């Protein structure tokens, strides 16, 4: 697949140069916003477009299930640095309907990990539900993530944090939490 990607990329770059689209873009979000969403492939490009953002206007952070687990502060670290160092003033937590992380079975995950060569004794050292970030409900997960960010000592209190759920097919947004 890597060779296909590089071949595609050469044509992609050539076309961007021909259209003069290869000019530098600022690395900071011009709309001073950050989206935290799920890594579901149906959301690639959809979330930004459904919200009216273009390239260079918004930071995007993704993980499985757009969740913040208690034993992992990487999302909080990224949001904090975005707000402190990059001028982010609004954060949008965007969950989605039909999220795979709301359908997972822990035994199935554990068995697949073992099949792929992950030692069972290593798996048994962790709280697998917490580690995987399995969620029970997409809307409740969005509320929980909003609360964790709002209550983090590392997120400035003047940052607005909103929670939404998107339909991965139509792109329709539903507001779950509006920070006023």
Key structural traits:
single chain; 180 residues; five-stranded mixed beta sheet
Word description of this protein:
The protein is of the alpha/beta class. Helix content is 37%, strand content 17%. It has 7 helices and 5 strands; from the N terminus they run αβαβαβααααββ. It has helices spanning 2-18, 46-50, 74-85, 106-115, 120-123, 128-132, 138-150; strands at 33-38, 58-63, 90-96, 160-166, 173-177. It has a 5-stranded mixed β-sheet. Helix 2 links the parallel strand 1 (33-38) and strand 2 (58-63). The radius of gyration is 18 Å and the shape is globular. The model has no long low-confidence stretch (mean pLDDT 93).
Placed side by side, the strands forming the largest sheet appear as: 2-1-3-4-5
Q: Biggest sheet: strands, sense, closure?
A: 5 strands, mixed
Q: Please state the structural category.
A: alpha/beta
Q: Average pLDDT value?
A: 93
Rounded Rg = 18 Å
Task: Tell me the number of helical segments per DSSP (H or I, 4 or more residues long).
Answer: 7
SSE order, one letter for each helix or strand: HEHEHEHHHHEE
Summarize the structure.
The protein is α/β, with parallel strands linked by helices and 180 residues long. Helix content is 37%, strand content 17%.
């Amino acid at each position: 697949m890597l060779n296909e990607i590089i071949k595609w990329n050469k044509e992609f770059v050539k076309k961007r140069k021909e259209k003069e689209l290869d000019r530098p873009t600022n690395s900071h979000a011009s709309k001073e916003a950050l989206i935290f969403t799920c890594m579901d492939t149906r959301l690639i490009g959809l979330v930004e477009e459904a919200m009216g953002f273009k390239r260079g206007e918004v930071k995007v952070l993704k993980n499985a299930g757009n969740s913040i687990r208690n034993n992992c502060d990487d999302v909080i670290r990224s949001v904090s640095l975005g707000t402190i160092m990059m001028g982010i003033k609004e954060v949008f937590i965007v969950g989605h309907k039909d999220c795979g992380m709301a359908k997972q079975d822990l035994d199935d995950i554990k068995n697949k990990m073992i099949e792929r060569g992950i030692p069972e004794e290593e798996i048994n050292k962790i709280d697998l539900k917490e580690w995987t970030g399995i969620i029970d409900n997409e809307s409740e997960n969005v509320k929980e993530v909003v609360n964790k960010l709002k209550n983090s000592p590392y997120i400035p209190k003047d940052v607005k944090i909103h929670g939404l759920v998107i339909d991965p097919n139509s792109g329709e947004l539903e507001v779950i939490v509006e920070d006023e």
